[in-house]
Amino acid sequence: MRAPGPSSFIPGRILRAMQRDPITFLTNTARTYGDVAFFRLGPQPAYLVSHPELIREVLVTQHRSFHKGRALQRAKLFLGEGLLTSEEDFHRRQRRLAQPAFHRDRIRRYGEVMIEYALRTRDEWRDGQVVDMSREMNRLTLAIVGKTLFDADVGAQADDVGGALTDLMELFGALFNPLAPVMRRLPLPSTLRFNRARTRLDKVIYGIIEERRRSGEDRGDLLSMLLLAQDEEGDGGGMSDLQVRDEAMTIFLAGHETTSNALMWTWYLLAQHPEIFERLTRELDEVLGDRPPSPADYPRLPYTEMVFAESMRLYPPAWLVGRLAIEDVSLGGFTIPKGTVAIVSQMVTHRDERFWPEPLHFDPLRFTPEAKASRPKFAYFPFGGGPRICIGEGFAWMEGVLLLATLAQRFRVELPDRDVVMQPVITLRAKGGIPMRLHARA
Predict the structure, then answer these.
(1) Are 36 and 3 in contact (CB under 8 A)?
(2) Which CATH number goes with the domain that contains 115?
(3) What is the distance between the alpha carbons of residues 20 and 15, in angstroms, rounded to a whole number?
(4) For the residues 6-11, what does the mean pLDDT come to?
(5) Is 114 within the bounds of a domain?
(6) How confident is residue 299, by pLDDT bands cut at 50, 70 and 90?
(7) Which domain holds residue 265?
(8) Is 376 or 256 the better-scoring residue by pLDDT?
(9) How far apart are CA 268 and CA 409, in angstroms?
(10) Closest CA to 368 of 313, 306, 283
(11) Residue 173 has what pLDDT?
């Protein structure tokens, strides 16, 4: 039996609705048709799965029946065979290789770098200054991932990387187009812009790899692990420069893009809720006084973490996960046939009033230990779940909390009178950024 869902006699109408406003389309579909809803994106059959227990089935219990969705498969055009896009044995081997770089002890050491770079940003900010918070958080998190995982100073290249990444993100919608593989071969303006953006990012990544190869140093970071793995491969050939590039590109971009957006949306929410900002800074003043945070302070800032968690509920940086069924799958009383895409959306489930009373209300106390224990696990999954859960989840939590604490110690923000529009591309961005006025705290 096929699940209910939206349909149209007009060819391509559903696909256009998804491309034009995917969040509204998916939210309305889930609320109208239930926890499993069927529709077609052009010729591609798809099921939207929105109940936490069924999401667990897709991401955990039956994960071997799925591969990454077609959009991420097409993202191989710039990510290659990195952790986000590779599959099965190759993915498992690459993940085992990268995992030590994200060990809890290493992340604590990375915390020193996170705070150091946040202090630099804080020292550059001025009372009354108007900044684009999207750009500010992007530059900060890019510098941190460059230094911690690749021991490279990429601060001077932040704007170039940010511009190239924006070009790639804005072309994401085209990945849903069934004609995307054909369009990629044509000299269209969008294709040329995509190729230029990929070349700019390759220049940065290959430059980091070349510098490290020249030095021959083992600095104990992720890049050293990738390069040293060349002598440990079963065939003796090791990882090619292309393989190193793919892993580095994936972690370099994913490692800063999601946290950058999470922090941007957190500042946006705090600007609208001064009472929550006041409680946040009260915790900072009580725990830290006048001194900057240290990594050891991370577990001593529970309310700061709750603010960050609630921000990622309302504005999840990764707002959608797609999985392609590689065999028939039984789910919620329906059969998802082989070749069908299963879509689970953090944006949809994180705002489901069955699990989140008054779901549009910003309330960090939803994340007290008692409140978390009362909800199904996959009512909240900002980093995905199962064997393919984001490898940098621990890194992102510490970074988000420490950066927010360091900056909020000295500054609050005000939103100028301007509409802020969500831009759901690969990650959840703000269209045109978010300008904010900085105010130094007394």
Answers:
(1) yes
(2) 1.10.630.10
(3) 9
(4) 87
(5) yes
(6) very high
(7) 13-440
(8) 376
(9) 17
(10) 306
(11) 57
User: 3-class secondary structure for the chain?
Assistant: CCCCCCCCCCCCHHHHHHHHCHHHHHHHHHHHHCCEEEEEECCEEEEEECCHHHHHHHHHHCHHHEEECHHHHHCHHHHCCCCCCCCHHHHHHHHHHHHHHHCHHHHHHHHHHHHHHHHHHHHHCCCCCEEEHHHHHHHHHHHHHHHHHHCCCCHHHHHHHHHHHHHHHHCHHHHHCCCHHHHCCCCCHHHHHHHHHHHHHHHHHHHHHHHHHHHCCCCCCHHHHHHHHHHCCCCCCCCCHHHHHHHHHHHHHHHHHHHHHHHHHHHHHHHHCHHHHHHHHHHHHHHHCCCCCCHHHHHHCHHHHHHHHHHHHHCCCCCCEEEEECCCEEECCEEECCCCEEEECHHHHCCCCCCCCCCCCCCHHHHCHHHHHCCCHHHCCCCCCHHHCCCCHHHHHHHHHHHHHHHHCCEEEECCCCCCCEEECCCEEECCCCEEEEEECC
Phi, psi of 38, deg, nearest 5: -105, 140
Residue 384 lies in a domain: yes
Q: How many domains does the chain have?
A: 1
Quickly state the pLDDT bin for 187 (edges 50, 70, 90): confident
Answer whether residue 5 is part of any domain: no
Q: Across the chain, what does the average pLDDT equal?
A: 89
* Gap between the Cα atoms of 308 and 312, Å rounded: 6
Structure-block tokens of residue 407: 């900056």
Q: Residue 228 domain-assigned?
A: yes
Contact (CB, 8 A) for 175 and 42 = no
